[in-house]
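Tokenised fold entry reproduced for absentees:

. . .
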Amino acid sequence: MPNEKWRPFSLKASKAVKHEHDGSENGAPPQYKASQGTINQVYSISTRFFEYLCLVTLSD
């Protein structure tokens, strides 16, 4: 059973921004933009996974 409260990427907005969007027509929050740390982490994980796949392919 998946955890409905799990959020891999969280969007943090100030209270002013939250209140600004509460009264809007669609109530949509601001668009998510990944931080530089998140981008670095995804790049690092992808690089390590690629290196692993290369090693597995060479060993077979």
Remarks:
- The helical segments are 15-22, 36-59.
- The first helix runs from residue 15 to 22.
- Residues 8 and 52 are 24 Å apart (CA to CA).
- Residues 35-60 form one domain.
